[in-house]
Amino acid sequence: MLSATPLRPDAEGFFGPYGGQHLPPHLKAIMDEIGNAYLSIRDTSDYRDELADLYAHYVGRPSPIYLARRLTAHSGGARIWLKREDLNHTGAHKINHCLGEALLARHMGKTKVLAETGAGQHGVALATACALVGLPCEIHMGAIDIAKEHPNVTKMKILGAKVVSVERGTRTLKDAVDSAFDEYLRDPQNFFYAIGSVVGPHPFPMMVADFQSIVGREAREQFPKQAGKLPDVVAACVGGGSNAMGIFSGFLADPGVRLVGVEPSGVGRDVGKHAATLSYGKPGTLHGFHSYLLQEMAEGQPDPVYSIASGLDYPGVGPQHAYLKDSGRAEYYAVDDAGCLDAFMTLSRTEGIIPALESAHAVAWAMQNAAALGKDADILVNLSGRGDKDADFVADKLGL
User: Fold this and answer.
1) Do residues 47 and 172 share a domain?
2) Less Cβ around it within 10 Å: N or C end of the chain?
3) How far is the C-alpha of 355 from the C-alpha of 398, rounded, in Å?
4) What's residue 173's pLDDT?
């Protein structure tokens, strides 16, 4: 269940030059403790069996793969398939790693679990997992995102989580990370910071990728049975990069399968309103790890970021993705807000599936590239979440 994927860090948590632990000694010691605890239980039958049981009977795994026939016809080219992570309990891929992290926190005897959230999906999933294992949960969320993603805020509160509104800086995801980490530093011995993507210091990129690799393993087994071949392209949206690493992991060893990460170009680089880290960033250090970082305004300092999808507006990216970009194994492109909204509405009205705005970026790339790939090609899109949280926002924006 948690077997290694073809992309693993070295003993110091590096993927090539990216990752690691850029931390003061006392925090490095705490991260090492978490990493050692995780490695000590990862392959035990008790941990594996409990997590497998929860995936099957609580989350509802495996999530299906669906051929979007009407979306394919609309796009006029390659067949577009969807890995339906939106059908998971809590509505997104985030529950995959939140359950693993909550079980680890319980194993370590932690007294409170902390996290940041952007779109609220990680917050809902972690609040759900903490309710399940009986641990207090505190979620830090930017004030702008709280207003935008109000349905998820309500869910977190119903589930028993304390939601902290972050008023500093841009009042979005990066500032929520800073705020949650400040709270974590008050008592790192007893608190557990459940990072919501393949970002942060080692061991978190490794751990989150391990938990999310179930998406790729399922897809690698399912797709040939349904399509009679491997997909030509596997595409997923990329903010921090957890859902993309999850599905990419199943196909890393298949050189004939293109791996495409889709970032948010927002309303444009020229006006400085985007979050396309791999497209426009360069190597730098943020939140305890080394990776690509948006730093055009000031060397070494993260730029303000923007995306219509709150879960993608982060100025860094997981170190695995930086390594995959440099090695050429994965390709990264950007889709703007207009393309995202078009995909959101088109998928909703051709297939009756309302996607998360984050996932709609990957759907948009598939729609935009289907004709060039041709009708004999297959694109598998990781539909990482559903759009319940975004429905009111989109309706207001489009005047529906």
Assistant:
1) yes
2) C
3) 16
4) 84
